[in-house]
Structure formats: C-alpha cells, structure tokens
Write a structure and sequence with these properties.
about 0% strand, 14 helices, two-stranded antiparallel ribbon, mainly alpha, ABC transporter involved in vitamin B12 uptake, BtuC
Length: about 300
C-alpha cells in the first residue's frame, strides 16, 4: 500500500507547489486590487500577456530574471490601463476587465507566435528536499524560486494592510469612497495605484508559468487561472495569508490527474483535470448568494457598481 501511497502523496505535494505558484501571485494581485474597491477580471489577460513577455524577455536576453522583470512591468502596464479606464465616469469595472482580458490574450497570441518553438532560459529550481533520502520527495521539493517571494509578499501585504498608512488608505478606499474623499484623499489615485501594483504581482505569476512550470510558451498556457483567482480571493476572504493556503489547495487540486498518472492510473485523467474548475464553481455558489455579502468583502464591492 505504501508503495502506491507515497508516490501519490509526493506527486500531490510537488504538483501543489508547482501549480500553486501562479495561483498565489494572481490571487495576491487581485486581493490588493479588490481591497481598494476595484475588480479586475482582466487579470486573465494580464497573466497570459506577462507569461509571453517573460518568455520573450528571457529568450532575447538570455537571463530568466530579466524575463521576470519584463513580466512584472507588462502586468503593471496592462493593469494600469484598466485602472485608468475604470476611473472615467460611467465606466463599469467588470465590462472593462473583460475587454482588457480579450486585449491581453489577443496581444499575447499575436506577439507570441514566433516564441512557440524556441527555448528560453529557465529559472533555476530551489532544492528544498536535500534533507530527505527519498528521491520522490527530493523531486517534489524542487520548487519555483519565485515561491519564497510570493510568501514574503503575502506576509508583507497582511502586515501592510494592518499596520501601515498606505494599507489603511487602500482599505479605506475599498470600504468607503465617501470617507476617503472626506479625508482629502483621491479615491481614483489610490485605486489606480493598487490596480497597477496588483497587475505587477500577477505578472510574476505569468513568469512562473513560462520560466518554470510548464516552462514553455503556448497559447493555452493559462487555462483560465486568472479568472479562477477571483473565486480564490473570495474563498480566502480577502486575506493575503489565506491566499497562500487557497493557492496550494487549488494547486493540489490541479495536480490530482498527473499524480494518478504517476502511479499508473490513467483512466478519467481529463475528469480529474477539471477539479479546479469544479472547485471554483462550488466556491462561487456557496459564497455569492443573492442578498448575502461575503465576510471580509470590501464595502464598495458589495454595492452596485
């Protein structure tokens, strides 16, 4: 029994750590954006475009870290456009986000055509399994070097929202636009800055897709992870620390199919690949009931936008 269970658990652990990293960065970016009172459904476009930009930056420069910086800058630029458009009168966040999602994916598909075949320099893995004598766990714990950055960002955002002036202003803009204006602060300015910063963080998720796992550029690289992140933030109750656990949960759910294949079970593979999407639907059905405001939701998001 242990000969089957141990490889399965190792595959789930490794899959959660690999697949969960893009979820972590995109959910943290969306958490920051929504804390300011704005929804960015365009993060799917941000993720895809930044993934392409990361791969292109690494391929052209020969350095994966330059690719990471390019991805963050690309994500910030597209999210900044979203923030600027949403600051205009009578512009809807959701409709603008959908338009930006289409723009981002369209640009990525068009500009990324020459990058489908080439190979770019990849991020070097962090070997966290050297303590174990098991080759399975050593392989599972070859983690993305961006993962520690994601964990630090989650802790920093949690601390920042609770203890810093900028964190208070972001929360204030998200909870009450009128109170923010009464104190003399620009609601649009805060939301634009938070949206752009959230896009930069989400861009790191795009870099982790093409520069670590799966480590290549193709037009189906995202598989809707940017949209799933919106449900993930709701599940995490707008807490950066809970986003870490939620990202690992979604990463583990996405790893069930490959984990079963690793122990010789291939039937129903496509069914298990749908687990993250089923989980998303379950979370939305439970959390988004008519007339019910989810715990932790910014006040401005619960009103008609």
């Amino acid at each position: 029994m242990s000969e089957i269970l141990l490889p399965f658990l190792a595959a789930i652990l490794g899959g959660a750590l690999r697949v969960g990293v893009p979820f972590l960065f995109v959910s943290l970016g969306e958490c920051l954006t929504e804390k300011s009172g704005r929804i960015n459904l365009g993060l799917e476009g941000v993720l895809v475009l930044s993934a392409m930009a990361a791969f292109g930056g690494s391929y052209l420069s020969g350095s994966p870290w330059i690719g990471v910086l390019v991805a963050a800058a690309t994500g910030a630029a597209l999210a900044l456009l979203h923030g600027l458009l949403c600051s205009l009168p009578r512009v809807n966040d959701v409709a603008t986000g959908i338009a930006l999602m289409l723009l981002g994916t369209g640009l990525a598909f068009y500009l990324g055509k020459p990058l489908i075949q080439p190979q770019a320099m990849q991020l070097p893995p962090l070997a966290l399994g050297s303590w174990s004598d098991s080759a399975l766990f050593q392989s599972a714990l070859q983690v993305n070097p961006l993962l520690p950055l994601g964990l630090l960002l989650a802790v920093g955002m949690y601390w920042g929202f609770a203890r810093t002036r900028w964190g208070l202003l972001v929360r204030l803009a998200g909870d009450s636009a009128s109170a923010t204006k009464a104190l003399g602060y620009s609601v649009n300015g805060i939301r634009i800055a938070a949206t752009a910063a959230g896009g930069a963080i989400a861009g790191l998720g795009g870099a982790s897709l093409t520069l670590f796992y799966p480590g290549s550029w193709n037009e189906g690289i995202s598989s809707g992870q940017g949209l799933i992140a919106v449900a993930l933030v709701i599940f995490a109750r707008w807490s950066p620390l809970r986003c870490v656990g939620a990202a690992l949960l979604f990463g583990g759910a996405g790893a069930i199919g490959p984990a079963l294949q690793s122990i010789g079970i291939s039937s129903g593979y496509n069914l298990f690949s749908a687990v993250p999407y089923v989980l998303t639907l379950v979370i939305l059905v439970i959390s988004c009931r008519p007339g019910k405001v989810a715990d932790g939701s910014p006040g401005e998001l619960s009103s008609a936008r």
